[in-house]
Every structure is written in C-alpha cells, then in structure tokens.
Amino acid sequence: MDILTGSLLKAVQLLVSGDAEVLRVVALSLSVSLTATALSLAVGIPLGTWLALARFPGRRLLLGLVNTGMGLPPVVVGLLVTLLLWRSGPLGQLRLLYTPAAIVIAQLVLAAPVVTGLTTAAMQQISPALRLQIASLGATRVQQLWLLMREARLPLLAAVMAGFGAVISEVGAAMMVGGNIAGQTRVLTTATVLETSKGNFDVALALGLILLALMYAVNVCLTWIQQRERPL
Fold first, then answer.
1. Could you tell me if 210 and 188 are in contact, meaning their C-beta atoms sit under 8 angstroms apart?
2. Which of 27, 136, 198, 222 has its CA 20 to 30 A from that of 214?
3. Element (H, E) at 145
C-alpha cells in the first residue's frame, strides 16, 4: 500500500512539477497513438463496411483473416514491421526505423483489424429491411452508406475506443520498432518497462498511473459522445 501511495504522489508530482521528460513522453504517446487510431479508422471503417455489405467469392476467408488480425501478437507485428523497415528491407530506404513514424505504422497494423472487425459486426447488425427502405427512397450509393453508418454510430464509437485502447497500451511492437530512445521514441509504455527493469518501481507505477489516466480521459470523452447519441 505504501508503494502505491508513493507512486500516486510521484505521478502527481511529476505532472504538477512539469517534468520536461515526462511531458515529452506523454505528448509523444498521445501523438503516435491518436495518429495511429485516426489512420486505423480511415482504413478500418470503409473496409469493415464493405465486408459487411458486399458479397463476393472469398469474403468469408477475408473475414477470417480480419478476425485473426484482431488478436495479432504485438511482438510479431513489431518483428514484421522491423523487417520491412530494416535498412536492407523493402522499405529500408525510407529510414523510418527507430522513429515515431515506425511506431505509428506498427500500431496501425495492430489497430486496423480491430476497427475493421468491429465495424463489420456493427454494420451486419443493421436490418436488411432498412437497407431496402433507404434504397427505395432513391438514395445514392454514397447516401446509403452514410445513412447506414449513422444508424450504426454507437457501435462504431465502440470501435474507436477499442482501436485507441489497442495502441495506447501497446509496448512490444513500440519497443522493437522505436528502440525506446530518450527524447525521440520513448512512450509511456516503453518508459514504464525501462523504469521497472532499473528497479525504479515508484517511477514505473507513476508512469503507469499517468497512462491509465490518459486512457480514462479519452474514453470518458468518447463514452460521453456515445451516450449522448443514444436514443431515449
């Protein structure tokens, strides 16, 4: 209990004192995670909608791949992205390894299947009768998709929360592709692992509490939007 109390006080102290390193780590964590989440939404929502509404050969196989991707081990993703970005790899000339962009790519690979799978499930729950009704009213294809997405907006917001949660709490891939470089690629999760390995449990727990506070703050905002949109 003493170490937990001390860690909470340490977390408050680090934030209130405006510790430059902690603020830098927090800012980078939010930057890469929000960017990865936004990109996963840009990829996952259209792809999930297409998988839910379209009918084509191999659809079930593709759905199976998406569902498998929802449980991808972060270390495997980190390994694959590292091989792609390695100087002798296919994308080595871009020199993205051990940069924030590499972390964004790894987190995108982790989050996109989650958003895609949840979007597919959300769109499949819409009654086919509603689709026919919208089409019968003369709506264009784009209008139909927009109205269907509005109908499924509540579970889609859950997909946003799941995607963000998958990236902000990830450590294995971020460590592998980012290198945990101080001032450049160190995020809250990798910093927590580093402080734990050094035996600085009070600092590690403080960083963990800051991470939980960030996750809570973002998800509270998304939950408020979700519940506000909920029909009475």
1. yes
2. 198
3. helix 141-151
Query: Smallest Cα–Cα separation from 51: which of 112, 130, 117, 132?
Result: 117
Q: Which of 162, 221, 207, 220 has its CA nearest to residue 13?
A: 207
Predicted TM-score (pTM) of the model is 0.87
Residue type, 113: P
Spatial neighbors of 12 by CB under 8 A, at least 6 apart, are: none
User: Tens digit of pLDDT for each residue in 76-95?
Assistant: 999 999 999 999 889 989 99
Nearest of 222, 196, 203 to residue 11 by alpha carbon: 203
End-to-end CA distance of the chain: 43
Torsion of CA 161, 163, 167, 168, to 10 degrees: -10
Instruction: Give Cα 104 distance to the centre of its chain.
Output: 9
Domains and CATH numbers, the chain: 27-187 (1.10.3720.10)
Which residue type, as a one-letter code, is found at position 73?
P
Lowest mean pLDDT among 37-51, 159-173, 195-209: 195-209
Assess contact for 49 and 149: CB atoms under 8 A.
yes
The model's pLDDT over 117-152, given as tens digits with 9 standing for 90+, comes to 999 998 888 877 777 788 777 777 788 788 888 887
